[in-house]
Amino acid sequence: MNKKLYFRLALRNVKNNKSTFLPFSISTSAIIAMFYMLYSIYEQVNENMFSGAEQMRIILNLGVSICGIFSVFVLIYTNGFLMKRRSREFGLYSVLGMEKKHITKIVFWEIVIVALGCITTGILAGIALSKLMFMVLLKILNLKTDFAFGVYPKPVLFTIIVFDLIFAIVIFLNSVRVHRLKPVELIRNENAGEREPKAKWLLAILGLVTLALGYYLALTAKSPMDAMGRFFMAALCVIIGTYLLFMSVSIAFLKILKKNKKFYYDKKHFITVSGMMYRMKQNAAGLATICILSTCVLVVLSTTVSLYVGMEDVLRGRFPKDVMTNYLYLEDSDSSEEQKENHYDYQKVQDACQSRADEYNVKIQDEDKYYSIDDIGALQNGRYSMENISTNNMVNFKVKLLEDYNRANSENITLNSNEVIVYSSDAGRINSQKLSICNKEYTIKKKLEKLPVDEKELQLYDTLYIVVKDMDAMKEIRDVINENTKDDFVCNIKYNYEFNLAGDFKDKEEYCQGLRDVINHTGIAHTDEVGSIYTSRQNFFGLYGSLFFIGIFIGTMFLITTVMIIYYKQLSEGYQDRRRFEIMKKVGMDDKETKSVIKTQILMVFFLPIFMAVIHICFAFDIIRKMLVSLNFNNTPLYIVCTVMVTLVFFIVYGIVYTITAGTYYRVINKG
């Protein structure tokens, strides 16, 4: 046989199998287009193009990587359905005298034809839509730029190389599949799994234990850092548990239904239960995959939508005041009196900020001035130290002066030098009226049930907040911590000057730009941080807006894959069930009864994965919420609303897919 004949046979096969090749080609072209668009935008965005561009490039690069890796999975998985569907055809080729190498060459040219079509279509669609997607991204980021988005060779070539390699993997796997099967098996392979499976109780128990472990890890995360450390292990346990449960518990459930004679010997239920029983192993794996992908869609979209919609809350979590500056309080014994005065004359900073406010027509208000220590250490059994720090005992440690506390909270408490006021977000770590800081012990005069009004508990770890009598007491704590710290870390006292701004938004933005230079010109030494909600806004938009943009892409990819698996699952099962329904028609089942049985069968399995996915989301809610706190997002009601809305939209899309695939299944059943 010559190459032209192989090519003609392959081309004819692609045309004759439109019901299987066309959905595969459309979904693959869409994935290629999305990959091209992401990479094209990533390549053309320069880090210096606008504020937030660096963060955007990092997220886009992550999105390109995820898209590329997931594309491998999608193409291999959906190609498996194609090969499964056509195994009888390959078996007939063998019976007619074709050798395995001939079948392999035909399959090779089929994939080459499909690959050429998909890559060409995908890149052309990507080129046509990439500028639109870039404009959408700029709109999400609230950016205006004169940058001319164009078409360049590198994204095109890179996309071709990546998907050529993926299709090469698919061709290799198809070749292995053909060469490993015997001619008789090729004919019978499409009906594999006809033996009634046994209920595997050991796997069922293992699945329940694994799933319960995943849920336990998710529900018992104590802090955002602990949640980030547990998440991937919890997700892995849930994935394994889901597969084991679908493959074992589902079979056991069907056997229970079969033993119920009143239920089982109804003609609708008899066909449904027996049909599912005979191929439940393959069916269960597909359902578990749909469940996991559905969960991924809900998690990705609900979190990224929440972050984007709650952008202002995120910014306010990071910047309780519009402008936040602080300065290291360091004694310098070698300095002259004049230098020391300049060192601690923070009034100069306030005067400089006020003078700039007059220049830019804005008003400074809600000023907050205080000294503090901000540290991270371990709190165990009423003792704070820098020893044996872990995610289980780590706390954000903050010390403030009594004078500042009384002024902010309108109180008039007095303290002795060895007395403190304490708040701990984990009250169980301090069981007595004593608190030790390294080797220094203090008496707790008052325990606060919640943080003072001027503090926000938006932290990666638990909080330990204490109030001391005066600056001497604060210096003592600083010195004790430094004396007991073995590494290069240094605990410092800081002077904080924070305030809000009133005026036009544009004036406030211009006021904040270059504010650090203005403060530096005052001659105040040891300026540590100068930040504002206005200068950081675009960086936050670059990060969270890009996450939202990538979330839409990745969520769409998960959704496409879910739809494809559902479609091929229904198509494959339709061909397998057709013979059974033909027999049932011969013994008296009419079209109305056939449709009723099909509806019952599909409903029994179709909504099980999405129901399980919703359960996964409910158990994952708390750990994901804690992870979002690490991104300065702490608006739980908003996250609940976004999750519910995304789930409802997904249910609508899922219902549309159900309607379409049920129709496909029915048409296959009724083919002559």
TrEMBL record:
Its main location: membrane. Keywords: Cell membrane, Membrane, Transmembrane, Transmembrane helix, Transport. It is a multi-pass membrane protein. It comes from the Bacteria. InterPro entries: ABC-4_Integral_Memb_Prot, ABC3_permease_C, ABC_permease_BceB-typ. Residues 66-180, 552-658 form the ABC3 transporter permease C-terminal domain. It is found in: Cell membrane. The chain crosses the membrane at residues 21-38, 58-78, 107-136, 156-178, 199-219, 231-254, 284-311, 541-568, 602-624, 636-657. The keyword Transport applies. Belongs to the ABC-4 integral membrane protein family. This is ABC transporter permease. It comes from Eubacterium segne.
